[in-house]
Specification:
Strand content: over 45%
Organism: Zeimonas arvi
Number of helices: 1
CATH architecture of the largest domain: Beta Barrel
Pfam families: DUF481
Keywords: Signal
CATH class of the largest domain: Mainly Beta
Shape: elongated
Strand order of the largest sheet: 11-12-13-14-15-16-17-18-19-20-21-22
CATH topology of the largest domain: Porin
Oligomer: single chain
Order of helices and strands: HEEEEEEEEEEEEEEEEEEEEEE
InterPro entries: DUF481 (IPR007433)
Number of domains: 2
Protein name: DUF481 domain-containing protein
Structural class: mainly beta
Distance between the termini: 83 Å
Largest sheet: 12 strands, antiparallel, barrel
CATH superfamily of the largest domain: monomeric porin ompg
Length: 355
C-alpha cells in the first residue's frame, strides 16, 4: 500500500507571524517616508514637517502636504532640520556652501554638519537656506511673462481688439534689469480705432541692499493721441522699500530727456523730472498677486505739462505657469493735443504664461 504524500501547511501562528512581519515592514516603510522631510520647530513648541523651500533674514517658507506653502516669520522659528544636505550661506550675497541641519534643544540654535561632524551654531549665523540665484555671489535669476487679451464681434457691426504684453527681467546680487513690450490694436467696421505700442527698459545698480542708481528708456507710438514717436532716456536714484517673498515695493526719482514727434501738433523736446513706482503683493488666497506699476514725466520747461502711464490689477495662477489676469491700464496727459482726451483707460481680462 502506498502512503499518501504529506502536504506541509503553515500553522495559524506562522501565518500570523508572517502577516505581522509584512505589516511591520509597511509601517517601517511609511515611517521612513515620513522621516524623509524637513522639520521646523516653532518657539511655541509646535513641530511642522514638510520641505523648507527658502530661509531668508525675515521669513521661512515651508511646503507642506496639508496647507501648501506656509510663510513663517523667522523670529518665530526655534530650530529646524533638513533631511539631506542643502545649500546655505552665512550672509546675503555670499558664496553658498552645503550642509545638513539638525534640531537643537536650545531655541535659536541649529546643528550643522558640513562633512566634518555635527556642531551647534546660533541660527543668526545662517542667513540663507536654499538661496535664490540673485542672493548668492554670482548667481542670476531670470523670469518672464506674456499676456494676451483679445475680442471680436461679427454681424451688424464688425469689431476686433488685440492687447498683448511681454515682460522679461533678470536679477543678480548687485544689479537687475527689466524689459517690457505692449501692443494695442482695435478696429470697428473695418476702421482702425486704436493703434498703440510701447517698448521700455530699465537697469538698476545697487549701491546698498535697499538703494540703487538706475537708467531707463522708452519708445512709444500712439497715432490716436497725435503721437508719432515719443522717446525718453533718463537716470536717477531709487529706493527698495520692501523686498520680501510676499511683497516688493520700489520708488525711483530722477531726470529724463524727452522728445515727442507729433503728427499734427508741433514737435517738442524738453527736460523732465521723472518718477516710477513698482509694487507687487502676493495674497494668501490662491497665491494671487496684486500689482501696480507707474511711470511719469513732468515737463520742466512747461510745468503745466505732465505725462503718466500705469498698470494695476490682479494675477491668478491657473496651473503650470498659466495665469489669468484682470488689470486696468491708464495713460494720462495733463495737456493733450487739441481734439484729444487727456485720459485713456482700458480694462483687460486676459490669459498669460509666466516662467
Amino acid at each position: 500500500m502506498t502512503a499518501n504524500p504529506t502536504v506541509a501547511r503553515p500553522c495559524p501562528a506562522a501565518r500570523a507571524s508572517g502577516g505581522t512581519r509584512m505589516l511591520a515592514a509597511l509601517l517601517l516603510a511609511g515611517a521612513s517616508g515620513l522621516a524623509l522631510a524637513d522639520t521646523v520647530v516653532l518657539r511655541n513648541g509646535d513641530r511642522l514637517s514638510g520641505t523648507i523651500k527658502h530661509l531668508s533674514p525675515d521669513k521661512l517658507t515651508l511646503a507642506t502636504q496639508w496647507g501648501g506653502e506656509v510663510s513663517i516669520d523667522r523670529a518665530e522659528v526655534a530650530s529646524f532640520a533638513t533631511d539631506r544636505p542643502v545649500r546655505w550661506s552665512r550672509q546675503w550675497g555670499g558664496e553658498p556652501n552645503r550642509a545638513t541641519f539638525g534640531l537643537a534643544e536650545a531655541p535659536g540654535v541649529v546643528t550643522i554638519d558640513e562633512g566634518d561632524g555635527p556642531k551647534q551654531v546660533p541660527m543668526s549665523r545662517v542667513a540663507l537656506l536654499r538661496p535664490k540665484p540673485h542672493e548668492t555671489e554670482d548667481g542670476v535669476a531670470y523670469k518672464g511673462r506674456v499676456m494676451l487679451s483679445t475680442g471680436w464681434s461679427e454681424g451688424n457691426s464688425d469689431s476686433e481688439r488685440i492687447w498683448a504684453e511681454a515682460d522679461f527681467a533678470a536679477r543678480a546680487r548687485d544689479w537687475r534689469y527689466d524689459l517690457g513690450l505692449k501692443l494695442r490694436r482695435e478696429s470697428d467696421g473695418g476702421q482702425t480705432t486704436a493703434d498703440h505700442w510701447l517698448a521700455s527698459g530699465k537697469r538698476d545698480r545697487f549701491v546698498e541692499e535697499t538703494r540703487f542708481w538706475y537708467l531707463r528708456g522708452s519708445l512709444e507710438r500712439d497715432r490716436f493721441k497725435d503721437l508719432s514717436l515719443r522717446s525718453a532716456v533718463g537716470a536717477g536714484y531709487g529706493w527698495q522699500l520692501l523686498d520680501s517673498e510676499r511683497t516688493q515695493l520700489s520708488l525711483r526719482a530722477g531726470a529724463d530727456a524727452v522728445s515727442e514727434d507729433r503728427i499734427a501738433a508741433p514737435d517738442e523736446a524738453y527736460p523732465a523730472a521723472g518718477w516710477g513706482v513698482d509694487f507687487k503683493h502676493r495674497l494668501d488666497f490662491a497665491s494671487a498677486e496684486l500689482f501696480h506699476d507707474q511711470q511719469g514725466y513732468w515737463n520742466l520747461e512747461d510745468t503745466g505739462k505732465m505725462t503718466m502711464r500705469s498698470r494695476s490689477g490682479i494675477r491668478l495662477p491657473v496651473r503650470e505657469g498659466l495665469t489669468a489676469s484682470l488689470q486696468l491700464n491708464v495713460d494720462w496727459e495733463r495737456e493733450p493735443s487739441p481734439g484729444r482726451r487727456s485720459t485713456d483707460s482700458t480694462w483687460l481680462l486676459g490669459l498669460g504664461y509666466q516662467w
